[in-house]
Amino acid sequence: MAAASIKEVAQHAGVSLGTVSNVLNRPEMVAEGTRQRVLDAIAALGYVRNDTARHLRAGRSRTVAIVVLDVANPFFTDVVRGAEQVIEAAGSMLVVCNSGEDSAREDRHLELLEEQRVGGILITPVADARQPVLHRLIERGIPVVLVDRGAGTASRCSVAVDDELGGRLAVGHLLERGHRRIAYLGGPFGIAQVADRYAGASAAAAGYPDAKLTVAETPNLTVASGRKAAQKLVTMPAAGRPTAIFCANDLLALGVLQEVTARDLRVPHDVAIVGYDDIEFAGAAAVPLSSVRQPREQLGRTAAELLLEEAREGADHQHRHVVFQPELVVRESSR
Amino acid sequence: MAAASIKEVAQHAGVSLGTVSNVLNRPEMVAEGTRQRVLDAIAALGYVRNDTARHLRAGRSRTVAIVVLDVANPFFTDVVRGAEQVIEAAGSMLVVCNSGEDSAREDRHLELLEEQRVGGILITPVADARQPVLHRLIERGIPVVLVDRGAGTASRCSVAVDDELGGRLAVGHLLERGHRRIAYLGGPFGIAQVADRYAGASAAAAGYPDAKLTVAETPNLTVASGRKAAQKLVTMPAAGRPTAIFCANDLLALGVLQEVTARDLRVPHDVAIVGYDDIEFAGAAAVPLSSVRQPREQLGRTAAELLLEEAREGADHQHRHVVFQPELVVRESSR
DNA sequence: TGCTGGTGCTGAAACGTTTCATTAACTCTG
DNA sequence: CAGAGTTAATGAAACGTTTCAGCACCAGCA
To answer: Alpha helices of chain B — where are they, by DSSP H?
Structure first.
């Protein structure tokens, strides 16, 4: 019943405790016969290594954590899948934590992760202002890689997609199609991606003196928020209402789309919509959604690789910042 | 730099090591003044408790794992969110593992979790045949709760939704609407849910002697599989082609929908579709999808509660099996 | 024969907690 | 004021590993 320990295995095989450990960790150092005897004992007792003890000794765990803004957002699940591939291939374990865009929950997770002395953390922080908290972890010697967030400081690696470019692409496209009253929907602006995409949108609009870019801030980036925000827009008099909406992510866009079509407005005729992330469901929406595509799994893979690299290299690791280019996918919702 | 240990805190506060531990775990046993001195030392040194050591001593960790078939499936992310709520409220941590419907990966995860001596496991197994592996864990004293999977044995708790009823509801509805050539799309049948939903579908069809229920087995339950399967159905001569498709989950259904509309067949006129799970995106699809709704978050919450209950009660715990009722949501895709 | 160098194994220390039997110092009580 | 009882703090053991210095033994060599 109770799990057997190395000591019992040693006893059963008639060798010392250190020898069993050697069989487990450097089998080539143990004579053939002894090794076999130990392996037999392990099988007989159903011994399973105790990772807790192992990592206590090692001082740091091999498991790696990823903290995302929303597990239910397909964008992040794809990032997670990418990271998983790399981490699992390295024989480690990836634990997924969900901050739900709530900094208290993010804090709580980071605390627990620090207590667990995890081997590293991939994170998309709830707000740009959270850098100090992350710094503390870095000072403690826990490697941190920022996901979907640009350079900034030199104290950690990061992978990101050029969000400003994404914003420019999206709004540039809408402007080219003749839209002049455009709304940017997203929030909170404390999230760097939300702010950067807006910056790009602004930059694009600046090139058209007659264009007007308004902002509707949302409390988060969910379908429900999109629906709610759309209710306001929809009830505006048609003359002042924006003719196009650029949403900070696809969940918002899908919410807007649902609400708008429920109110008998036509997309894109009455209002065009462009989303962001190009999640799998964007193309399958009631009106297939134009969206800014990001290399989601790639993002996760690269982040995980940077983390492993850092863990391997230790002190003389050079922090790197990888930036990917987004790509606009035009579909019916803006055509 | 290096994290301070209890020993250093004790030194700094001028007390013994045991006293610091008491401050941390039973503060009421320590005199006011001493306690304050220790707390000050903790703050001064930035001490963070080492969970690894703690759990080595305790023999079992407080963290709990959930192993799902597909992190990218919104059904599971909702289950995860439900479980999260309960586990976090209890001060523990939930780690999410993704088996990707692959039993080798599932095995690997379970091995690692066993090595980590986790406090418990919530799991939707890759196949019904995996019971023996789970049994081993249970014998080791790790509580296991089956998620989305019915009674079976008495050796563990489970939460489930009545999948047979779900299948009956879906196909019963299609039959009532006059469909007589119905395809069931899903797989692999080793997954209990896939088999049970089919059983329900069969039972419903049995009541209509002129009805014909065919099966198209898929290798997994993803959008891509749905699209691929639909390609075959679509190219059949209209006379023999099923007039309705019941899919084992919504991802498949969305895939079918995409492919079918791309081929200029109309839904539901040329072919009706009913999905399963009623994920958030089902209602927002090109043609809003009829689906069998399950209480997803509730499922996760209840599973987590059963697990905590079992962990609390220890040996004299009575295993329980909770079964929820599904509900058919009829939308345009079958109307 | 005595030395040198391997090889294969042992035994103990260390990782950072928690727990528990002891001890030390007081406060009552009769 | 001796003894009992209470309270607060101590110190050591234990959890299951990994690591490393050291020991025993043997082969090869001069």
So the answer is: 6-13, 17-25, 32-45, 51-58, 74-89, 103-115, 131-139, 163-176, 192-206, 223-234, 250-262, 296-313
Put residue A95 in one of left, alpha, beta given phi > 0 → left and psi -120 to 50 → alpha: beta
* DSSP per position, B108-123: HHHHHHHHTT-SEEEE
pLDDT digits (tens, 9 = 90+) for B123-171: 999 988 888 899 999 999 999 999 987 666 778 899 999 999 999 999 9
User: What's the confidence (pLDDT) of residue A265?
Assistant: 92
Q: What is the mean pLDDT of residues A183-201?
A: 96
Q: Give the pLDDT mean for B55-68.
A: 94
Which is more confidently placed, A114 or A238?
A: A114
**List of protein residues whose beta carbon is under 7 A from strand C:** A 14-19, 22, 29-31, 33-35, 53, 56-57, 59; B 2-3, 5-7, 17-18, 21-22, 24-25, 47, 49-50, 53-54, 56-58
Give the list of residues 6+ apart from residue B122 with CB closer than 8 angstroms, or none. B64, B65, B66, B67, B83, B144, B145, B147, B300, B303, B304, B307
Is B213 or A129 the better-scoring residue by pLDDT? Answer: B213
pLDDT at A312: 87
Residue among A51, A95, A116 minimizing CB distance to B96 = A95
Q: How many Å from the CA of A18 to C1' of C12?
A: 10
Helix, strand, coil percent values for chain B (each to nearest 5):
50, 15, 35
Of all nucleotides in the shown strands, which has a C1' nearest the CA of A19?
C9
- CB burial of B186-214 (b: ≥16 within 10 Å; e: otherwise) equals bbeeebbbbbbbbebbbebbeebeebebe
Contact B281 A84 (CB under 8 A): no
Q: Which pair of structure tokens corresponds to residue A22?
A: 């050697």
pLDDT at A187 over 80: yes
Q: How far apart are CA B125 and CA B102, in angstroms?
A: 10
Q: What is the dihedral of CA B200, B204, B205, B207, to 10 degrees?
A: 140
Q: What is the pTM of this model?
A: 0.92
**Chain B (48-107) residues lying within 8 Å, Cβ to Cβ, of chain A:** 48-53, 55-56, 61, 63, 71-72, 74, 77-78, 80-81, 84, 88, 93, 95-98, 105
* Spacing of B31 CA from D2 C1' in Å: 28
With beta carbons less than 8 A apart as the criterion, state whether B145 and B158 touch.
Answer: yes
